[in-house]
Amino acid sequence: MEFRIARADLGEAVARAARALPARTPVPVLGGLSLTAGAGWLTVSGFDFETAARVGTDAETVSEGRVLVPGRRLLDICRVLPEGPVSCRLEGSRFTVEAGGARFGLSTLPHEEYPAPPQAPPVYGTVDAAAFATAVGQVAVAAGRDDTLPVLTGVQLRFEGEEMILSACDRYRYAVRHLGWTPAAGTGGAEGPGRAVEALLPARRLLEAARSLAGCGTVGVGIDPSAGAGGGVVGLEGGRTRTVLRRLEGRLPGYGRLFDLAGAAVAEVGCGALTEAVRRVAVVAEASSPVRLEFRAEEGSVAVRAGFGDDVAAERLPAVLHGCEEACVAFNPAYLLDALNSFEGPGLRLELLGAGQRVLLGAPGAGVGHRHLLMSVKQLV
Predict the structure, then answer these.
(1) For residues 245 and 157, is the Cβ–Cβ distance under 8 A?
(2) What DSSP element (H or E) covers 338?
(3) CATH number for domain 265-375, candidates 1.10.357.10, 3.40.50.2000, 3.10.150.10, 3.40.50.720
(4) 123-246 under CATH 3.10.150.10, yes or no
(5) Is residue 146 predicted with pLDDT exceeding 70?
(6) Is residue 376 classed as helix, strand or coil in its secondary structure?
(7) If both were cysteines, with which of 32, 179, 182, 320 could 68 make a disulfide (CB 3.0 to 4.6 Å apart)?
């Protein structure tokens, strides 16, 4: 096996495939990346039983073949390679990488012990790659990090007609994003409204996959509608990059009633200005100390406050409040910043029920788009 390849092409392919490598594993071969050289192409693959990634790129192949090498070591080598073409060859049980006078040798792993990755289901529909990456990023911040509750560590994809709905929840916040997509011909979605199809995927893995596909133009989503809630896999493919994610069992709780804030007061404020104000005043907040938002209809402002005693910070911003004369809510500053940073537009709309109750954040105007529900803290000091 021998091939020559551009440094940038090799580095990008290895970096994308390495995202599927486990942080640590008792099975040494799972820490490997599989390199397969064919006529004019190279594929780099990684697999850890939860995620399988395969990335293809152009290469000048001298002799075809495949090899399994330690993945993170190869990634480290790609990061320090000199500029210029890279020559790679398999010499017995050693894989060598040469570029610009630098030469690296890598031991190989037994490819026959490498497990076969799962096959992606047929494409169920397609979605704009950049919009999909943005949508996943907007909801993934609300996914839980507690592995003892795996269902809350996922992002749920729901496909119904020509709409994809992404959602995530960790008990304290709930993010939802509606996104248009194109069902494939012959699927239930392509034929019109019908039974919705859902899949719950690990949030961190889905975010990594979506980001790696963001520049591909269009992403094909492969899903088996008969798999039900749990079990099976979902495939994401764009260009010459393909990722297969194993689904989590279960489904997220419904958000319909949670997002129905009948009788709520409504406040509108500049999203960027509020984000910067929260970031500034939060420097005086202790880990368990909230950031408070105090809206005043008569003054047309919101005061952003944090801290207690002599260690305090405050900033006042223009804001509009409808439905009451004043409203005061408080949030965990990290949760609030996560929510604010997930919005792209200049304006922000907040539906307020009061202290210690739900607050729904969204863009001003009609349409559902992206919404983020936060629980305000009960005690305001």
Answers:
(1) no
(2) helix 333-341
(3) 3.10.150.10
(4) yes
(5) yes
(6) coil
(7) 32
**Global pTM?**
0.90
Q: What share of the chain is helix, strand, coil (3-state, %, to 5)?
A: 20, 45, 35
Sheet holding 301-308, edge to edge: 197-202, 154-160, 163-169, 173-180, 370-375, 358-362, 347-352, 265-270, 311-322, 301-308, 291-296, 326-331
pLDDT in tens, 328-367: 999 999 999 999 999 998 999 999 998 889 999 999 975 6
- Calculate helix-pair angle for 271-281, 333-341, nearest 10 degrees: 150
Sheet with strand 2-6: strands edge to edge: 60-63, 2-6, 85-91, 94-99, 102-107
CB-CB contact of 262 with 357 (8 Å): no
Contact 46, 17 (CB under 8 A): yes
Q: What was the pLDDT predicted at 186? A: 72
In terms of CATH architecture, what is 2-113? Roll (3.10)
